[in-house]
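Subject: Interface between my chains keeps coming out wrong

I've been trying for a while to get a sensible model of this assembly. When I model each chain on its own everything looks fine, but I need the whole thing in one frame so I can look at the contacts. Pasting all components below, labels as-is. Any help appreciated, I'm running out of ideas.
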Amino acid sequence: MKMPNDQLSQHTQHCDDCPIRHRAVCARCEADELEALEEVKYYRTFEAGQTVVWSGDQMDFVGSVVSGIASLTQTMEDGRTQMVGLLLPSDFVGRPGRDAAAYDVVATTELVMCCFRKKPFERMMLETPHIAQRLLEMTLDELDAAREWMLVLGRKTAREKIASLLSIIARRDATLKLAGTKGPLVFDLPLTREAMADYLGLTLETVSRQMSALKRDGVIHLEGKRHVTIPDLGRLLEEAGDDNDGGLMA
Amino acid sequence: MKMPNDQLSQHTQHCDDCPIRHRAVCARCEADELEALEEVKYYRTFEAGQTVVWSGDQMDFVGSVVSGIASLTQTMEDGRTQMVGLLLPSDFVGRPGRDAAAYDVVATTELVMCCFRKKPFERMMLETPHIAQRLLEMTLDELDAAREWMLVLGRKTAREKIASLLSIIARRDATLKLAGTKGPLVFDLPLTREAMADYLGLTLETVSRQMSALKRDGVIHLEGKRHVTIPDLGRLLEEAGDDNDGGLMA
DNA sequence: GTTCGCGCTTGATCTGGGTCAAGGATACCC
DNA sequence: GGGTATCCTTGACCCAGATCAAGCGCGAAC
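Reply #2:
Try treating it as a single job with all components included. I did that and got this:
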């Protein structure tokens, strides 16, 4: 558990250039509002495996994922852990109006975050309806995603759980790349088998077995342990048990 | 599935008198803002078992639970169902900016709701930061509760799940009654064994068995099937696997 | 009263996924 | 090259909770 590499970025890039600008909290902001945000903004980078904050710790910023993936995790005293959110680029981290983090936030891959100092951000939220409104919208989306995931955790079989996770990653990945929706989807799994298990309420052995089974049945192709090809997204969605939409994202 | 008894209430009571006024969406509203809400407000009552809206149906209002309990439920094509939220008095129903309901909303007990016509409510939200801010706060609370529940669904044993549910109901019930925190908690379960199972990702048989086990072990007392006494909340929380806080509410 | 129906309990048995344990495949470092 | 650490796979066995099935308790309708 090393903690270097977490210094403020020097080349304070401007919001306008930000790749996730139009999907993040500031999506609706006017030029002058962006300018104000600029004042309290800074970038931080984390390497894979680094912890951004521990549950219960003071958190003096909020922010958005710019690139990479972070996960929110809850742990019981006896060590059982459950991932409760997967934060992809443009997702928001932190809760205005609360000082302590409610979950462990961990960089699952190399991670770049755009942070805002919490106090001034909270003040801005009261004065800038655009921010509060956008944040409400994003929070409602996350709530839907969390509820979708409750169905996965409560009622789906191991195979369906894996298929659900793969389809979420595949789809989010596809929209990020703005790739044409046609043709096989290809991506690298950003999660270890253990992280997948933590997200799905399974053990890593079961994840491994079901991945092998989906591969054997031709639902996915695997090259190495992480490189995945989905020849037929419809088939995968069927396996996930929700023929239609495949779910939102946390 | 009968649908009567769902007419607009005649005695349009004023918000000031509303028992949940200070905890609901309008908690922060000034007198003039309340007055404006008054214009688009109406009450609806539902009897136990009635469906408020079906998933996918048009929903032309948003609102708050005034009394009784409603549940949000998701169903898979093959009939597996998962309750994804339990709405208690003051909780908000509906999503501004979306027309179709995302879940089945069902009155679990007799239910009174304070509804606002959606279109004007959405307009007010843009003009009245107090409403958007309060709604954001409530949505963040619900998101926390949903994530808390993901841990329950993903990692807890049947016994822990039951204990978790009972402690949530007990605590929410206690705060509603403003009862002193000391002494045994007493309440009537507002859910059938089947509804409990749907919330916990279990079968009703398992729920029944674990209720019997908790009774046998003196963690709870049962009088009839629904009347519950918690002699020692600390003990119950221990059984739930979270010694400290027992969780938030959806 | 009797009968019906619904919500619940309890027992017997089955099974999906957990647990324990033994390797295999890469990648990195010396 | 060999050593070793990390991540993953696969097998053998077990158990918590699902499934199948029978019956109880109690209120409502007659």
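Reply #3:
Confirming on my end. Residues 157-158, 202-203, 205-206, 209, 224-225 of chain A lie near DNA strand C (CB under 10 Å from a C1').
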